[in-house]
Every structure is written in structure tokens, then in C-alpha cells.
Predict the 3D structure of the following.
Amino acid sequence: MSDSTPRCAHFEDDLAGLATGTLTGRPRSEVLEHLQSCPACAAELDALSLTIDALMTLAPDVQPPAGFADRTIARMKEEAPALGADSLTERGGSRERSRPGHLRLARPLLVAAAALLVGVGIGMAASTNKAPGASTTTAVRVASLHSTDGTRGEAVLTSGHPGLLMVSVDYTEPWSRVTCQVTLSNGHRRVVGRYAMSSGYASWAIRLPVSATSVRSVQLLDTQGATVAWARLPKTTTS
Amino acid sequence: MSIYRSHSGEELSDEALLAGMAAGDDRAGATFIRRHQGRVYGVALAITADAAAAEDVAQETLIRAWRHADVFDPRRASVSTWLGSIARNLAIDALRVRRAVPVDPDSVEWLGMFDDRTAPDVAAERAESLAVVRAALDALPVEQRRALVRSAYFGQTATEIAAAEDIAVGTAKSRVRLGLARVRDLLASRETRDGVENRGERE
């Protein structure tokens, strides 16, 4: 802690308490406030927290009782919004949904998700007719996202229930918000999400409120409604 | 689960499975859970020493991971470490509700149980890193180790440690701090030195 101040010494013990999660009440709020303005202590806290993580590796792996994974997934489903019910809201002029099941992913996760879905797509194609119980309609479509001055990112779309659209975009313009819209095979357009843009790179994943196979293209619109980037998806290869 | 191998036949990464699970893919979720359930349940069981509480904590850990996949930062820690950290916090919360420390945290005996149960089935690499962490903990003066174990594994507050060890609260706090800082330094020196000869027993 080379930039530590005399004040930091006062928080030494409490920093350890914060790392172990055992500090409460007033001392806790005081040290949290100090951290706001002290990068040295914030770095120290980070190092101590990682040390706690390392200590936890001493706990042995123990397999939980049978059926654990199924019970956990069942609990997830109870807590998830009923996304499947959205798949037929493909109506002209329909109102924008407040939360169409989108989620933001950090860049590494987005890339990983795309790799996963592409991998699955290929796996499915290779094992058509062979996977009992597996959906045979999973298809992955990938298209570059363009703007007037070149390629800006990628759109990855997978069918399934619900279908998933992942978009990643690099940009230099001062975009504050973009609207993500899909154009369907019947010509209808559908807003699927609005995103704040701040760091020069953005990515997100959206559970589609419409049938994935009906999506022909993806557009990003600026706050005035002008198209600033677009991706034209290849036609589905599986039927 | 051959479908969860990439086309080159490798197993999919934790990050890929986490992303798939977060996106609502059941099979990615099931694969992810099966891959990590031993770690998550193990941490929960070590802290709570109660099978039912541990299962609840383990489930909640995975549900949090699923819900908060967007805050996972692979540059900071592995998925396994991240899950262990969530499980630890939830298990300590569960303990707090019950207000009981299930295992006598006299650290030496308590940690002894880890050796036999972990050693046979872990990969060599993990066994080695375990040995390093274990050695760092062993290198602490006993009173620091006891305080740190109470705090890190059982989430006891300074006041609780002071009462249990019959010492002043300020002493309990500084023992935890000194122990934790020492372990951190020992782990850091192991990393940079890559030394096998450093037995971590100097005092």
C-alpha cells in the first residue's frame, strides 16, 4: 500500500473484517465510505478477498445427494419469467414489452456463449436423427454487423424456445442509446431492446419475443430512429 | 453429454456453459451444475456441517450464478473460485441465522479432515495448490490461525471470536488481520518464487 495515508491505518482491521464478511454496522459503513476515495485500500481489500477465496479451496469437493442438478434447474424455472409464452406475440404495431427477457453479458461471456451455441449447432447438425428427445430444429445463424463505414460487430441468432439473439458492436460515435430492432420475414419490425452505450463496446443477449426463424435482419437505431448498424442473417438451413 | 463438447471434441469451458445457462439453455445449465456441484456443496457442507442446509446453500449459489452471470469477471478469478466465494457467503449467512458454530473450530484438528477426503480424487495441479494454501495456514502462529479459521470459515465476528477465545475484541480483530495478511504474503511469495523448497515454516 504505497499510497496509504495515516487514515488508512485506522481501517486496517476493518478491511480484514470486510474481506471475511464479518464486519457489520457503523464500522462497516465507515470503511465502505473510505474505500470510495482510497484506491490503495480498495486494492488491499481485493487482495484480502482473493486470499479468503484461496482459503476456501481447502474445503473438499463433496457430491450432493442424487437429483441435485434437476432440483436446482427446477428452482431456476420457478424463478424465471414465463419466457416461452412470448413466442407468439408477433403482431404488427404491438406495444413494446417492458422487459423482453434480455440480459447483458460481459464480453468474454458473450463470445463464450456464441462459441457454445455455434458448437451446439454443429453438434446438432452432425447428429441429426440421432439425439432422442433433443430438439432437431436448433440452428445458429451468424452475420456481421455493418455500418456505412465497415464491419462493426456480429449478430448471432439461435432458434429454440426461446430463440436467442446476441449482438456485439464496437463503435466510436457518441451513441448514448441504441434501439435494437429485428425485421421479420413478413416485413414487420419489432423492437427487442434498448441499450445504453458508454464505453465504445457493447454486447447483449436477448431472448427473442418472436419466432427466431422468422427473423431476417437486425438493426440498431439511434435516438432519432435512424439505422446506424445492421446485420442481414442468412436463411435458415434446417427446416 | 457429448453435445456439450465443441466440434473439435474438447469440453466446453466453464464460461461458455455459464453463458449458455444464463441465456436459458437447460442442457448447458445441467452440465454446468454437474461440473461444479461438488465444489459448491463441499464448501457449503464444510461451513454448515448440515446436509439439508448445505443443499439449500448450494442451490442458491448456482441460482445466483445463473442470475448474475453478467457480473462474473473471468480475469479476476475462475468460475470455480467465484462459486466458492458465493457459497461461502451464503453458508455463513445460513449459519448466522442458526447462531451456531457446528464444528469445533480448533483449527488444527478441524482442517485435518480435509486432507484425506480431498487428496485422492483431485488433479495433481489442484492438489499442489491446496498444499500451498495449507502450508500458508500452517505457517501462522496458532492464535492467528484459530482466529482466521473462525472468521474465514465460520464467519464469526470479532466479538464472537473474542468471547470464544477469551480475549479483547481489538485483539481478535488484529489476529484475524495479521493472519490473513500473512497468508496473502505467503501465497504471493509462492507464486513469484515458484519455490518447492519454501516450506513456509519460518517464524
About this structure: Residues 18 and 145 of chain B are 35 Å apart (CA to CA).
